[in-house]
User: What shape does this take?
Amino acid sequence: RDEHVTLSHGSGGKATHNLIEGIFAPAFANTVLDRMEDAATITIGEQRLAFTTDSYVVNPLFFAGGDIGKLAVHGTINDLSMAGADPLYLSVGIILEEGFSMEQLKRIVDSMARAAHEAGVLIVTGDTKVVQRNKADGIFINTAGVGVVRATANVGQTQVQPGDRVLLSGAIGDHGVAIMMAREELDIETDVESDSAPLHTLVAALLDSIGTSLHCLKDPTRGGVATALNEIALGAEVSIALDEQSIPVHEGVRGACEILGLDPLTIANEGKLLAIVAPEVEQEALKVLRSHPLGREAMVIGTVQAEPAGMVFLRTDIGGTRVLDMLVGDPLPRIC
Amino acid sequence: RDEHVTLSHGSGGKATHNLIEGIFAPAFANTVLDRMEDAATITIGEQRLAFTTDSYVVNPLFFAGGDIGKLAVHGTINDLSMAGADPLYLSVGIILEEGFSMEQLKRIVDSMARAAHEAGVLIVTGDTKVVQRNKADGIFINTAGVGVVRATANVGQTQVQPGDRVLLSGAIGDHGVAIMMAREELDIETDVESDSAPLHTLVAALLDSIGTSLHCLKDPTRGGVATALNEIALGAEVSIALDEQSIPVHEGVRGACEILGLDPLTIANEGKLLAIVAPEVEQEALKVLRSHPLGREAMVIGTVQAEPAGMVFLRTDIGGTRVLDMLVGDPLPRIC
Ligand SMILES: Nc1ncnc2c1ncn2[C@@H]1O[C@H](COP(=O)(O)OP(=O)(O)OP(=O)(O)O)[C@@H](O)[C@H]1O
Ligand SMILES: Nc1ncnc2c1ncn2[C@@H]1O[C@H](COP(=O)(O)OP(=O)(O)OP(=O)(O)O)[C@@H](O)[C@H]1O
Ligand SMILES: [Mg+2]
Ligand SMILES: [Mg+2]
Ligand SMILES: [Mg+2]
Ligand SMILES: [Mg+2]
Ligand SMILES: [Mg+2]
Ligand SMILES: [Mg+2]
Assistant: This one.
């Protein structure tokens, strides 16, 4: 085991997974945390609630299509949505570096307020800390969120069955590439914007239409679609077979990835979801996704199989099949 | 208004108050946040829930009586308790600096797990990010928490009435002085230990005994008792008169404060509460506090008055009266 934390431990990929499984999960173990879902599902009285948290350390703070504040609101809304919940309330914990610009802080706070307002969630509690110069990087934001699991929802990795279909709500890699492009060191021209968006109404539409035939949801953030599907394959003890040709990638993302030697399947998204559904509702689910502004480019990208459990395979464009692993290393640290 | 963030904005005192009132509160405004209580009280279905968050950036990470992990669990339990809630579930968001020692991480995580277990709360969801060297300071921890407001609780700044009594559950300043002592630069010998402790059972005992005669609770963390009572005086639009002689301060804290020119009333605590109660239950409340291991040194320290609203006065040991302000500046940055 590593003696020191490396950037890979923050990639959201294999090293993060190993750190969580090696240190956090055993120490905190309980039946809720052990499910390792995007949001915890807790029952209080008669209410099924979802509860989740994410910290945001994205660099730079402002980029095409968004900023750290918008991301911090959308990201937590999305993890609640992945539990089939309507997001209701957010907390915001802000860590500031001494010397940070008040004007930038105000822009970020206004962006959070706008994102919350547009999504219909309330920021009801917060905290503000300051550390000395060079002990942080401008601003870090944590959001936690509470939502109510929708009555018709019964999603989770344990619901995934062999034969299920894997749907993706749209093109991948936009967020990660937008962040790369915003980093000064790069000098590539693209029109790629972050896809940062709140996914709760898309999930509500799916649940209204296919109910418990919606088996599992996951937003492919850090580590991208490759990592998200590997986590599901491991958690659900199934195999997933993907068809590369069906996976939508915008031209600008494809170009940037080729230049940089990156795989769009491992790049972060902030407004996309993976939905695993019963085979008989595949076309219905696809129709619902495509009827929503955030799902217009949705595709069926693969199938769940019984064996070999815990593995993801990709039928490539040129006709071969390869193992699709979790993200290894961290080519793009601090993507969110 | 300041153009840049200063360490004072993180003191928990006047500058923090102004930053929150100037930037966060107006942007996020809603009827829940506007109450500016230690925890938000939200109603979901029939359930009255409490929801709160704090980030921890304490330096050093380990000190007499505790560490950042224990603090992060107790602090959020305590803010939930200040809403009259039984704490149930915590989230944990961890930001690590590249190169941080895995052995220290493990110690901190084990300390969090122990504190959560001892308090009967579950850590059900989390997040882990890593930033480059010199972009953080080892580890920052955010915890958010959800609890159920106890049936007999009706606490809040709006409940505070002229004539009410102010009780303090024990001696002040232990946490802040323990942190100071743990900083290498100081060379004073004391036996002061952080008072870090979970206050929910103390609150439960109070509520079981005096119910709605318990009007308001606040844990005097950053900014100490002076800041906490000023916040209540402002929020409740009352005046508070304190009797300095009645305020317990341990010998080691008094000595360290004298040497360093600090006022124990502005120093942080992590296991103390202020309770504002109806005058007729003063002695009953005091008895309940003193019967609990965490309230043995409890005292009645003051009285609520109608005028002048928003101000706190201190009758000093030598017989005079002075205005007791919120903490100004930040003599001890990163106390929690
Ligand atoms: N420090 C931690 N302690 C406890 N559980 C954790 C911790 N970090 C992550 N987890 C848990 O591990 C799982 C994966 O977390 P992760 O942060 O990768 O998910 P995510 O929020 O959906 O992804 P992202 O952070 O990229 O948006 C979740 O179930 C989460 O609750
Ligand atoms: N960034 C923020 N956005 C919104 N509200 C905030 C923010 N920071 C603090 N608040 C609110 O301001 C009030 C005071 O916050 P503060 O953090 O000082 O309270 P506390 O947690 O009880 O004290 P401490 O942080 O010292 O333990 C609370 O009602 C809190 O919800
Ligand atoms: Mg997620
Ligand atoms: Mg997330
Ligand atoms: Mg706080
Ligand atoms: Mg508090
Ligand atoms: Mg607090
Ligand atoms: Mg996360």
